[in-house]
Amino acid sequence: MYNPLVLLLGENLNAPNTLCVFGAIFVASLYYWYKRPNNFPPGPRGIPLLGYMPFMGKYPEAKLLKLSETYGPVMSIRLATAEVVVFNEFNTLHEALIKHPNKFSGRIDFEWMKDISKNLGLVTVDYGPFFRSQRKFGFHTLRGFGMGKKSMESRVIEEAAFLNENFRSHEGKPFEVKSILRAAVANNASSVIFGKRYSYDDKEFAKIIEIMLEEFEDQAFAAVNLILFFAPKLVNIPPFTKFHRQYARSTRIFIDMIRKSVIEHEETYDEENPRDFIDAFLKEIKAGSDFFSNEQLFFYVRDLMIAGTETTSTYLTWTCVILLHYPQMQKKLRQEINEIIGPSGTVQMSHKPKMHYTSAFIQELLRFRTALPMTYHKMNEDAEFNGYSIPKDTMVLVNMWAVHNDPNVWEEPLQFNPQRFLDADGKFIVSNQVIPFSLGARRCVGEQLARMEIFLLLVSIIQKFEILPDPDAEKIPALDDAVNGLIYSPFPLRIVAKQI
Ligand code: HEM
Fold first, then answer.
1. Nearest CA to ligand 1 atom 37
2. Whose CB among 16, 89, 202, 475 lies 3.0–4.6 Å from 73's, allowing a Cys bridge?
3. What is the widest separation between alpha-carbon atoms in the chain?
């Protein structure tokens, strides 16, 4: 076999020349590593192979905001093998996502995800005609159109009564509240999608929630998932293979459950009386609409159930943590509820415009604890933006946490303070800079349902119960300690719900 050094150096092969060759290779590798696309936004490169990954810490969204002080609101970062652009500020985010949806609204086509989700559903589907048709349908249907007589609001109000009943059943003794709020929220999604709710202790229901949210609870899974985002080729190497197999397995089980329900829907389908999301979708399939198929329905339902459960229930759990920290705010909320609805009236969405303090509290909740701190997009085409060139297919991180904690916009952003959204007359000020549902072409399709759930469930709880700490706990859970996996979620939480 030929020695490449002999080929290169011939009779000049000696120790100093060999050293020079290795030096040149080393410099070339460094040049390749630190080189970035032409006129790319500035940002740290980290170390070879890993990029900036080892320096991101437990709260990458906060780290990125800090880095933007040096590199500006549009910056880049090398994460393992990926060149990533990050938007950290409202104006740039607004400009990119609202004014140029065609350029900034794609999703990366990860091979490892594709062999599980088959490019179906909505969350991971790239921008294009298929995506637009499915999104339009979802947006319309999740606003209650095409799902029959039972309104979205009446489904949530019904669930609020079951949730109150569960709180009452603990008779003032401490209980774990996160799993109960999650069950209530999963029931709302289930009622809208499957036309059915479950009792909180139903075994089948518990299994669905477990399968659905396995990866949210598991911090190691979340970490692996994150690494695969930026170094997708690792999927073929242990321990990543194991996590990938686990994800594929839980997806298969969940899709089989959904398939069973779709078959039941087909057997009892009545075109004149659509009951839920599945019926509305079946109608499109039967009409032969482009891009509508049974397989797409299964994955769409999976995406809605997962996206619609952990996010909303996370906000409700944070509400309980906040109420424990600020009993005065709890009193103020109850006072307004009593004035507008009364101690035993049924809360409805029509009450909301009159409830200024409650609206300010909820907007501050959405700002303060951004449940999904960041979302990822992909460039669909080359773009010139803010003076930089961003090539097609670059990953874009939308840092909503940074928008919510921008010190140039918010006074003391780390403080929970609903007053910031009340004017001198105590009237609610809507802020367009609170964007937990993101912006533009990929903005959350379940936003209206989520906002309805947060308002109706939160008000109905505070109306009937005083939320108090578990007397056996050493201290009240901190407001800034959380599971920061795919979602920024509080740890399981024990409270006392004292009936009023
Ligand atoms: C407070 C609760 C919720 C929050 C904070 C939230 C937030 C978000 C965010 C930030 C995105 C990503 C947008 C982007 O990539 O730019 C998203 C997407 C999505 N959400 Fe929500 N969401 C919530 C509730 C829901 C509910 C109740 C549903 C449905 C039942 C839902 C369904 C979806 C779906 C399907 C997508 C993917 C949209 C797409 O890729 O085009 N979400 N959500």
1. 123
2. 89
3. 96
Backbone angles phi, psi at 385, to 5 degrees: -145, 125
Contact 491, 179 (CB under 8 A): no
Tokens representing residue 408 in the block: 């140039």
If one residue of 135, 229, 311, 452 were mutated to test the ligand 1 pocket, choosing by the most ligand atoms within 8 A of its CB, it would be 311
What's the rounded Cα separation, in Å, for the pair 490 and 369?
10
Helix, strand, or coil here: 287?
coil
Residues 6+ apart with CB under 8 A from 314: 369, 371, 487, 488, 489, 490
Query: Which residues does ligand 1 sit against, CB inside 6 Å?
Result: 122-123, 135, 189, 303-304, 307-308, 311-312, 315, 371-372, 375, 398, 436-438, 442-446, 449-450
* d(C-alpha 236, C-alpha 244), whole Å: 9
How many C-beta neighbours within 10 Å does residue 250 have? Answer: 17
Encoded tokens for 172 = 């003032």
Distance 186 CA to ligand 1 centre (A): 14
Could you tell me the two tokens for 296?
């797409």
Q: For ligand 1, what atom is nearest to the CA of residue 135?
A: 41
Q: Are the C-beta atoms of 446 and 372 separated by less than 8 Å?
A: no
Which residue's C-alpha comes closest to atom 1 of ligand 1?
312
- Atom of ligand 1 at shortest range from CA of 449: 27
391 secondary structure, DSSP code: -
CA–CA–CA angle 428, 429, 435 (5° rounding): 120
What does the alpha-carbon distance between residue 183 and residue 165 come to, in Å, rounded to a whole number? 13
Strand, helix or coil for residue 489 = strand
- Ligand 1 atom with the smallest distance to the CA of 442 is 41
- Counting Cβ atoms within 10 Å, is residue 68 exposed (0-12), middle (13-18) or buried (19+)? buried
The tokens for 94 are 């607004």
**pLDDT value of residue 468:** 98
State the Cα–Cα distance between residues 477 and 492, nearest whole angstrom: 10
DSSP designation for 83: E
Closest Cα to residue 304, out of 147, 84, 483, 90?
A: 147
- Consecutive H or E run containing 75: strand 74-79
What ipTM does this complex have? 0.99
Amino acid found at 95: E
Low-confidence ranges of the chain (pLDDT < 70): 1-8, 28-34, 149, 215, 217-218
Pair 306, 186: CB distance under 8 Å? no
